[in-house]
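Let us practice reading a record.
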Amino acid sequence: MKLFCQLFVVLVLCGLLSTCDKKSKEIVVASSLPTFVTQNGNDFMISHDQTRLIIHADVAGRIGSLKINGQEMLIPANPNKSTVWGSVFWSSPQGEWAWPPIKVLDSDPYKISVVEDRIVFTSKIDPVTGYQFVKSYGLNTEKKCLSVIYSIYNHSATPKSVAGWEVTRLPPTGLVFFPQGNTESASGIFYPINVEHIGKVSWVSYDPKKIREYDHKLMTDGKEGWLAYVNNGQLLVKEFTDVPLELMVPGEGEIELFANAEKTFWEIDQQSIMSKLAPGEHFDWEVLWHTRTIPVEISAEEGSQALVDFVRNLVKGKNQISQEKPNKPSELMTR
């Protein structure tokens, strides 16, 4: 009995120490956060002018909300019902892990740290692929936009050929456009997505009437290194390094769109250069997220040259952010 009591006391003390250690880590992180980041439990919000971006440390450091002038642009976080929300990061080719995504990389909690003026989320090592993901969030002060740096580490005993893959899930509405590259569009095992080529730009408007009883997909090459989405007067532009054809992942696309048969969401994706990683090596891939309210004088319709020009100037750092007052952070920290 005496031994049992002693063991019980030890276990209680260990539990208390563990709780104190966890709280201590949270306090250390909160006290050292960059000035543009606020914390609410496991959620971290980046505030930048009119934009609010929420990251969920307990769900793979995943982006769960992007609001521009208070308008939600993504399928918002819904951890209790589905993993299909927000903006996620995968490795490519998908054939290495098939489906579903790797839990330790896609939905398990990530470790939090602060490095210089960035908040960093680090996964555990997946025992099957040997991959470890790191997601680093900050601001690009030169272009006045959000910056996400993705890293893939190869902790396996074998060399890997791998690319980064950012998958951004949107509500079933809006317009996507990007400069068309040097390949035709493909759809793999899925129905094709209807795309209009106007000049050298590809345009895709979400039309539920054109979604049939099976999922739809588009895989193709892009140019100029950007992919844009417009919804209700708000604009998201993802900027990245353009991928030469010879460095694309075989069977994949630099630009990929996906629409599910249930008509509940669609995705805008881009992939990085395919890198060869020896054991112990890693690569970094930066994606810039430009967010703007489209000026009233610019048509936000399919084929709008003024809209394309606006985006091209944006990625060159020429279009300044509107001076409209942003929403209060407290209004945007709820799920």
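A brief commentary: The CA atoms of residues 95 and 181 lie 24 Å apart.
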